[in-house]
Write a structure and sequence with these properties.
Radius of gyration: 15 Å
Number of domains: 1
Largest sheet: 7 strands, antiparallel
CATH architecture: Sandwich
Oligomer: single chain
Order of helices and strands: EEEEEEEEEEEEEEHE
CATH topology: Jelly Rolls
Number of strands: 15
Distance between the termini: 21 Å
Helix content: under 10%
Structural class: mainly beta
Strand content: over 45%
Length: 171
């Protein structure tokens, strides 16, 4: 994994957030499982919302507007609600465990696990001990996914996220 770096995205869904990239994943044509995860301790965070995503480095043009495609959610730290950011799917779910139960020893895990079969990228979002379904994405040749995490503008995303990991394995 490379050194976390600030990320500027043209995606309007990310406009209200300071973003950081923890690296990129090249998605080859063969079956593969890959993922990205970070931890946070909500009680130590100065932000009310965090963004957690794996997005394609290549933008799509829809109705003359450049749009990101990938997997992205916004987690409301106060309510535990999880909202879709890229696919207009609305509320994905919520975290049942109380936010104040997460500590340095047991932080809140945010994890994307993607399985690539055929032309499909099938995501599984795991937050805390809960698993959420999310819309699949079509794989394109030479696809590169960027790992993205962030929080509200001005809140310093590099200090919010701990234990970042990017991984991949052949199936």
């Amino acid at each position: 994994m490379h050194t976390p770096a600030p990320l500027v995205s043209p995606e309007t869904a990310f406009a209200s957030y300071d973003l950081v990239s923890f690296g990129k994943v090249l998605v080859p044509a063969h079956p593969l499982r890959f993922g990205f995860q970070v931890d946070i301790v909500p009680s130590q965070s100065v932000c009310k919302q965090v963004v957690f995503a794996l997005v394609s480095s290549e933008l799509e043009i829809q109705n003359g507007v450049k749009r990101s495609h990938g997997f992205a959610v916004r987690v409301d730290i106060e309510t535990g609600e999880i909202w879709d950011l890229l696919n207009d799917s609305g509320l994905v779910g919520w975290i049942e465990q109380p936010m104040d139960s997460f500590t340095d020893e047991e932080p809140l895990l945010l994890n994307w696990e993607i399985e690539h079969y055929g032309a499909a990228l099938i995501p599984k979002l795991k937050i805390a001990s809960e698993v959420f379904l999310y819309p699949a994405l079509r794989h394109t040749p030479d696809m590169v996914m960027d790992t993205v995490a962030g929080n509200e503008t001005g809140k310093g995303p590099l200090t919010t996220f701990i234990h970042p990991a990017v991984w991949k394995e052949s199936l």
